Amino acid sequence: MSAPRPTIYDVARAAGVSKSLVSLVLRGSDRVSEASRAAVESAIRDLGYRPSRAATDLAAGRTRLVAVLIDDFANPWFVELVRGLGQVLAPAGYRVTVVDSANAATAEDPVEGVLSMHADGIVVARDVPRALVDSAASPIVIAGTRTDAPVGVDVVANDDGAGARLAALHVIGLGHRRIGHLAAGGGAARARAASFIATAVEAGSEVVATDYTGPATEAAGFDAAGSLLRDHAGISAIFAANDVMAIGALGAARDLGIPVPAGLSIVGYDNTPLARTHLIHLTTVDDSGFGVGREAGRLLIARMAGREPVGVARTLQPSLVVRGTTGPAR
Amino acid sequence: MSAPRPTIYDVARAAGVSKSLVSLVLRGSDRVSEASRAAVESAIRDLGYRPSRAATDLAAGRTRLVAVLIDDFANPWFVELVRGLGQVLAPAGYRVTVVDSANAATAEDPVEGVLSMHADGIVVARDVPRALVDSAASPIVIAGTRTDAPVGVDVVANDDGAGARLAALHVIGLGHRRIGHLAAGGGAARARAASFIATAVEAGSEVVATDYTGPATEAAGFDAAGSLLRDHAGISAIFAANDVMAIGALGAARDLGIPVPAGLSIVGYDNTPLARTHLIHLTTVDDSGFGVGREAGRLLIARMAGREPVGVARTLQPSLVVRGTTGPAR
């Protein structure tokens, strides 16, 4: 505590910009170039700068809290999203906390839970509960491609259609002509399925898709891949709705004695921490959870500062990450 | 919304107990038998009963929120803890939210973050920040074996010494006589290391332990296991400080071309959702995260109702879960 606490002037100096530009970044203004914003955010991190929290925060009922509503803690896709949110929101003085609707006991309504914490802002990263949109007094930003996203609410998402197309072109380029798809419920999974099938069929490949519409869990991926591989001869590649289902498929392949990728290629979606482990080393689509989190954080800061919602979707481009679970068709 | 909302009388009837006993359970009383408590909790879930939230909650500044402070979202050991907490706290009208200190930007102090959300209760499931204990106006329960757990604060944890002993006896029973241990920082990891080494040495086995004291991540497990296997001939089994490090070790073994379990046995700790996947199928110690969560939730309910902290540790017994990553020494 001996070093003096850094001020907004220190941040401006370190970033090589004016104090008022730092203020604009802290308020989430969109009148700031990407380069200046990055320089300011970097200086804030390097200096450990924290905006002074006016004593009026408490009096005004501000909690400096942003609540993120997700589906299921057992699916680590949300880790990058929360990291991206934190990188933008923490320097602006906000704290990110995560509420998981799947783990709630049936007696408790996740919407009421989120409302009860009086967060200054809410990020919805699951299919959108209508009651939340109707009742929330705080600004909402939707992260990801979601069912029932209401008109007029800001949405930040990766382009699931483009990502699934990358996955399809990859396996087709490897020579796979009979491909399985592990489907799941929810807006993102549906968008991925539609684009993957359209791309593959257009290229003259055949896709056998499962008709499962429940949550995209490891167990669901294991079951669906097992059925697919047993009931449909000649499938040499599988595209799963997400990484967790792909890990289920890897387990099914192992149990059936099918080597990956020599006998079966598997592609996931999300580029989760699991996909990046040395053990799993999964070919997947990086849907830029970190970038979606940063963008959602910036939009939310602007909304919390009183700006009206844009009511449009900001779409980030996904990329393909080729690792060890895909290879040429035999 | 046409069915009448269930009342406390409905719960009492369904559980076969009196209304006042239901009240005792909702207040977290310890004057309730385990059987009655289970019956009431089950009836609450089945009926979807929610205690009416008095309008005075808001006036009294109650948020009905319980904050859980964890280390790192990328390590899914916390999933069962949160499930256990939710099972007890949701029927009592509390919502669980998770704050991750690893993902916080450096500019933000996790302690300040937790304080700013004005939670009615706090569960600390990482090494305990002194500033939090000093500043928090709300009751705190510590979950897990933690460094710097202050005297006078309730602690619920599994018996890490007993769990590591189970792991040691398992690999020794399989005939392994030269065993690696992947150490890590933190109170739980240290307790596991000490007990594992003592048990193995007592049984006449040799343990080569790494001296790493950082966070127990997959990357750390991969690096440590790689060094261990390259530098020390004859190691036929590895006990990792937790599941995530064990998954790193599985990756290292694969990269070195060592088959598991034929050439190397690997044991983790936590019984995370990852350990239970068909693909990883990891032999591990179940440290009863769900049970720790339930007990911590009950203690917290009692504290939030005004009862003084017990100031003692409640210790749950861990169990060994044998899966596919351990086998006989050659």
UniProtKB/TrEMBL annotation, chains A, B:
Pfam family, one: LacI
Domain HTH lacI-type: 6-60
Keywords recorded for this protein, A-Z: DNA-binding, Transcription, Transcription regulation
GO MF: DNA-binding transcription factor activity; transcription cis-regulatory region binding
Name the record gives this protein: LacI family DNA-binding transcriptional regulator
Species classification: Bacteria, Bacillati, Actinomycetota, Actinomycetes, Micrococcales
